[in-house]
Every structure is written in C-alpha cells, then in structure tokens.
Amino acid sequence: MADELLGHLGGNIAKLIGMTQADLCRMLGIGMAKCSVILAAMELGRRSFLAAPITGSPADFRYSRN
C-alpha cells in the first residue's frame, strides 16, 4: 500500500500533508478506518518534529518522564 500511495504522490510524501481523509480514501480505494490510521500516523510524525527538547534541569527531565 505504501508503494501505491507514493506512486500516486509522485514519490513526494510531503503531499500527504494537505490531503483530507476523503481524498486519501478515493486515491487508494480503501475504507475510512484505514485512512484514519494513515493520517493519524502522519500527524504523529509531524508532531514529533515540533516537540521542543527539555532544556531544564535533570529534575525537570525526570518529572516529564512520569
């Protein structure tokens, strides 16, 4: 499915960012549930790049881990 998706996007995964759930379902011919999983994974990846590193004390880091 990943190869098919990349083929539709011309190899540019960044094009997924602006796609709606309906767009993705139409493109791949899959159901709403699977489209939701793909979009959720993309959102998690996007958010992981936005997360600010913890630059406080070691105690701040330990607190954030719990």
* Protein structure class: mainly alpha
Output mean pLDDT.
Answer: 84
Domains, number? 1
| Assembly classification | single chain
Computed over alpha carbons, the radius of gyration is 17 Å
Low-confidence stretches: none
Question: Characteristics of this structure?
Answer:
66 residues, mainly alpha, 4 helices
Topology (SSEs and partners):
Layout: H1 2-8, H2 21-28, H3 32-50, H4 58-65
Give a summary of the structure in a few sentences.
The protein is an all-alpha fold and 66 residues long.
Q: How would you sum up this structure, described in words?
A:
The chain is elongated. The mean pLDDT is 84. The chain has helices at 2-8, 21-28, 32-50, 58-65. The protein has one domain (2-65). The protein is built from four helices and no strands. Helix 2 (21-28) crosses helix 3. The longest helix has 19 residues, at 32-50. Helix content is 64%, strand content 0%. The chain has 66 residues and is mainly alpha-helical.
